[in-house]
């Protein structure tokens, strides 16, 4: 859909069924491609807020990284998808897209009372099995945003350990980070995300031992995505042997951006920190823009001080504890307005 306001500004929302990529004649557009600001604003809301504050012609492309909103982003990028209860289906290709976070997501639990040691990825395995029984031949799984750190063992058990080879071609993993299942102390792995899922100091050695044990059960394959989703990436990419890739890269490819029309990329996410470089939307968009010699401006709900710069902008000075959607929107609007006034946008 294309909208033109009274000032002559044009905003285009990428949707392939409208064949807009072939029809757009506008040059020097600003590509707005943010992820969600987790817990406050969806990717679409972030894109619209940024667009409303920019004077130039814009192309809006809300993104996802394999976490919440991934299935919706896939459905928005390509035609023919139908929303079902908790997932999307493309009847013509007999393909389904589901976010693991919709079934075993961190936002579905109270972290203060969450028992990470008993949290299981089995419900996702049950859901995927039922989708395949319902007639789909392929299921694309957004791996990020889980409340689990079980190495995907519950997921594998729900599918049936003796039948895992049957799922190799029918499942695909879209991951939000590139980290191994386990690693030496201080190095990124599935364990680094456990504290935000409620794991305390006593839990971490237990979880590490469990993850190491699970890794030894399937020793012949290793993937760079094994640590995603509390080890769900390992279950899919290494134990089963499914195709796996970064969710943000997959969705960017689906949207098939005509980079010759883009003069600036504006992206963002709720928190920009050391995890961002491991495959999050911001990093993927920065790298894609750099390959085409296009500058980038990043807005983070919160950006760690050492990562801030003139073009990496924090909308909040301190990490927000419980920020309302209204305040998150206000902070973002003010940050975009300042960037416009400074000539960055």
- Major sheet: arrangement of strands: 1-2-4-3-11-12-13
Question: What is the first-to-last residue Cα distance?
Answer: 23 Å
Topology order in helix (H) and strand (E) letters = EEHEHEHEEEHHEHEHHEHEHEEH
Number of helices: 11
How large a portion of the residues is in β-strands, by DSSP E? 15-25%
Uncertain spans, ≥5 residues at pLDDT below 50? 1-7, 16-23
Radius of gyration: 20 Å
Helix content: 25-40%
User: Which structural class is indicated by helix and strand composition?
Assistant: alpha/beta
The major pleated sheet works out as: 7 strands, mixed
Integer average pLDDT: 92
Number of strands: 13
| Outline type | globular
Task: Describe the model.
The protein is α/β, with parallel strands linked by helices. Helix content is 31%, strand content 17%. The strands form 2 sheets. A 7-stranded mixed beta sheet has the order 1-2-4-3-11-12-13. A 6-stranded mixed beta sheet has the order 5-6-7-8-9-10, sandwiched between helices. Strand 11, helix 10 and strand 12 form a beta-alpha-beta unit. Helix 2 runs parallel beside helix 11. It is globular. The N terminus is likely disordered.
């Amino acid at each position: 859909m294309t909208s033109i306001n009274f000032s002559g500004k044009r905003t285009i929302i990428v949707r392939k069924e409208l064949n807009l990529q072939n029809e757009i004649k506008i040059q020097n557009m600003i590509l707005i491609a943010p992820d969600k600001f987790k817990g406050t604003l969806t990717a679409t809301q972030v894109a619209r807020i940024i667009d409303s504050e920019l004077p130039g012609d814009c192309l809006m492309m809300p993104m996802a990284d394999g976490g919440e909103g991934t299935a919706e982003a896939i459905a928005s990028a390509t035609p023919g998808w139908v929303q079902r209860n908790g997932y999307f289906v493309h009847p013509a290709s007999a393909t389904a897209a589901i976010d693991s976070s919709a079934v075993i997501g961190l936002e579905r639990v109270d972290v203060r009372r969450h028992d990470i040691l008993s949290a299981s990825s089995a419900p996702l395995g049950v859901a995927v099995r039922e989708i395949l029984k319902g007639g789909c031949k392929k299921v694309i799984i957004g791996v990020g945003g889980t409340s689990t750190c079980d190495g995907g063992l519950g997921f594998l058990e729900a599918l049936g350990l003796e039948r895992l080879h049957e799922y190799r071609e029918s499942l695909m993993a879209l991951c939000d980070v590139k980290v191994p299942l386990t690693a030496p102390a201080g190095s990124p792995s599935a364990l680094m995300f456990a504290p935000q899922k409620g794991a305390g100091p006593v839990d971490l050695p237990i979880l590490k031992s469990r993850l190491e044990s699970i890794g030894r059960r399937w020793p012949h394959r290793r993937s760079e995505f094994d640590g995603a989703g509390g080890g769900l990436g390992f279950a899919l990419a290494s134990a089963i042997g499914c195709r796996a890739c970064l969710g943000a890269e997959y969705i960017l490819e689906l949207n098939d951006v005509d980079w010759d029309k883009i003069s600036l990329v504006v992206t963002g996410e709720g928190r920009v920190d050391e995890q961002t470089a491991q495959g999050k939307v911001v990093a993927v968009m920065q790298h894609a823009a750099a390959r085409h010699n296009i500058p980038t401006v990043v807005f983070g709900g919160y950006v760690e001080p050492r990562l801030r710069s003139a073009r990496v902008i924090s909308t909040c000075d301190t990490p927000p504890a419980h920020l309302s959607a209204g305040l998150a929107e206000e902070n973002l609007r003010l940050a975009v307005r300042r960037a416009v006034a400074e000539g960055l946008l």
